[in-house]
What we know:
Elements: H1 2-16, H2 29-36, H3 43-46, E1 57-59, E2 63-67, E3 73-77, H4 79-85, E4 90-92, E5 99-100, E6 105-111, E7 114-119, E8 124-129, H5 132-135, H6 139-142, E9 151-155, H7 158-163, H8 168-189, H9 194-201, H10 216-227
Antiparallel strand pairs: 1-2, 2-3, 3-9, 4-6, 5-8, 6-7, 8-9
Amino acid sequence: MVALTVILMIVGFMLLDMGIQYIQKPKTVEALSAATSRIIHAADDLMSDFLLPLGYFFHPGHTWARVQESGEILIGSDDFANKVLGNIEGVALPEVGQQVKFNAPAFQLIQGGKRAAFMAPVSGTVVDVNAQLRDKPSLLMDSPYGSGWVMKVRPTSAADDLRALLIAEPAKQWLKNEIRGFRDFLMEVAGRKSELGMTLADGGVPVSGVMEQFGESEWNSFQERFLKGSLA
């Protein structure tokens, strides 16, 4: 009965979501370069560099939730976070049977000695994790909403949790704001990275893997600003 209620609610949300199109990745380095050079003028242009698929609920901390026919919920990190973090060397997964709490840390992405913690978009019991990520964390970048999923949970308060997440036009506007905010974040730290500063001065913003060149301090700032998104 709970699963049916959730699925009926999802159908309603997806009717609202029809206005969001599946945004394609640039297929060449040249295409990515051209896209990133436009961010200094308008966040709308850079929307084409990030996937925002239909039928997914987004937490402002850059995790997503997708309801399965069983009523269980797949969870992962979104395309924006995966792209800007770049080469991920490991994933700290929760244990099967572990309880995760809505808006609390659920898993971590690891790059060298740096870790980025991601919030659970729903509360529930972990029933499965994507073990492939242990040997192939590149799936996060290659297929963020498919084979790069992170965990599956049996939700305890799905209706309330999903209602607090973003979908359709609110999700689109949120991503635009995050793109603008990320440009501002890069401008703030550009003075400590001469190559980045020169790129910004030329009118462009590097996107894919830009956080790879930063240390723990900048990663901590990034987490505070982008991965602990407010649901207020």
